[in-house]
Amino acid sequence: MKISAKLLLFIFTGGCIDALPLSGNGTESAIQKLERKVDQLYTVVSQLEMKIMTQPVSCPAGYTEFQGSCYMFVRYLMSWDDAEKNCQRFHGNLVTIQSAAEQDFLTDYITKNGDLYPHWGFWTGGIDRGANGMFRWTKNNKLIQNEGDFLGWDYFDSGTTQSNQDCMVLWRNRGYLWHDLGCQDKMHSVCEIEK
């Protein structure tokens, strides 16, 4: 079976042109016509790319959005290390609480959905392994006690009580204020992804 060069060119260009003559003055005008079509396609693609880039980024399924971050409240009980690994599997970390508004959001969400989370607390990204009482956020290694930082410690538990309590939890019995517990304890957790 013999296929004509015109048919091949028609197939190659995706039918954008009627048919290109293979020689003569018509070839140049057909090429110019094709170049204009390609330019039009580039314009359309550029416009679509701009629309995509300016669309607000939504959170993945199972996450809740708040002030530019996505939060997943994990129901399964895990040790702190397992909870952090679980968050990393979803390209996040245990939550880094940076403001009173963020603390209020977390507390409100947990309280409203309390039936789903019956255990004592939720792991956060705060940890003080190797530096008793000097808690840092795992995501950025920032010292939590810096001046000007939001501090959500429970008045009765300032994060410095016992040497084997190295991981920070939002503690249910104290209104989800911060407490330090043993990292091997099994708790719910909150994962965070910044958008």
Automatic annotation (TrEMBL):
According to the record, the segments passing through the membrane are none
What span is annotated as the signal peptide, if there is one? 1-19
Gene3D superfamilies under this entry? Mannose-Binding Protein A, subunit A (3.10.100.10)
Q: Which UniProt keywords apply?
A: Disulfide bond, Signal
The record's CDD domains line, in alphabetical order, gives: CLECT
Q: Which InterPro entries match?
A: C-type_lectin-like, C-type_lectin-like/link_sf, C-type_lectin/snaclec_domain, C-type_lectin_CS, CTDL_fold
Q: Where is the C-type lectin domain?
A: 66-192
Decide whether keyword Disulfide bond is in the record. Answer: yes
What PANTHER family does the record tag this protein with?
Answer: MANNOSE, PHOSPHOLIPASE, LECTIN RECEPTOR RELATED
Output this protein's name.
Answer: Perlucin-like protein
